[in-house]
Amino acid sequence: MSHELLMIARAWHFAAERHSTQKRKGSAGEPYVNHLAEVAELVAFATDGADANLVAAAVLHDAIEDTKTSHAELATLFNKDIADLVAEVTDDKGLPKGRRKEPQVEKASSKSSRAKILKLADKTSNLRSLAKSPPADWSETRRKEYVAWAKQVAEGLRGSNDWIEARFDEAAAIVSRVLNLKTNPAPKLRRQKKG
Ligand SMILES: [Mn+2]
């Protein structure tokens, strides 16, 4: 299916151009495209390489939300299925940034099963980033609130793909451990006296 390879190559070039000046929020300031690469790989493995449109949508998943890209443009340059998938994982841009978290929790369970896989991959990548390279200006409280919110969203996204759920759960366990270790160091174990 070489047309699918061509489409995915075009999606990478398009996303790299559109996100070219953006960096991740983490203290390491990774290029934004690293996040797109991680999400696309997760989606490709979750679907055993059988859903090229979903992989392309993963590459493009933040284009409408974070760059000057429209649904119509994606539908024309790629196809309507890809554009619809990206739109399905895009927050309502009519809402101010601070009001976009609650709707994600409310709407998660009504997403299509393919959008659920993509959103879980996105949340997995975000939690991995928070563990590896947290934003320097996020307090411990804000980091913990983010993890709690991501877990809430993920509850509504379950039931479509066991593999991606397991990756999300791993990432959530790791970031929770990292955050808890920093604020509540494990008490030192006392050596038990013999006898
Ligand atoms: Mn994303």
SSE layout:
Layout: H1 2-18, H2 32-46, H3 52-59, H4 63-66, H5 71-77, H6 80-88, H7 101-107, H8 113-132, H9 140-157, H10 162-183
Helix pairs in contact: 1-3, 2-3, 2-8, 3-6, 5-6, 7-9, 8-9, 8-10, 9-10
Bound molecules: manganese (II) ion.
Residues 35, 61-62, 122 line the site of manganese (II) ion (MN).
Describe the overall structure:
The chain has 195 residues and is mainly alpha-helical. It has one domain: Hypothetical protein af1432. Helix content is 65%, strand content 0%. It has helices at 2-18, 32-46, 52-59, 63-66, 71-77, 80-88, 101-107, 113-132, 140-157, 162-183. α2 (32-46) packs antiparallel against α3 (52-59) and α9 (140-157) runs antiparallel to α10. The radius of gyration is 18 Å and the shape is globular. The N and C termini lie far apart (71 Å). The chain binds manganese (II) ion. Manganese (II) ion is lined by residues 35, 61-62, 122.
Report the CATH topology name.
Answer: Hypothetical protein af1432
- CATH superfamily placement: Hypothetical protein af1432
CATH class placement? Mainly Alpha
Beta-strand fraction estimate: under 5%
How far apart are the first and last residues' alpha carbons, in Å? 71 Å
What's the number of extended β-strand segments? 0
Number of domains: 1
Helix content bin: 55-70%
Sum up the overall morphology in one term. Answer: globular
CATH architecture: Orthogonal Bundle
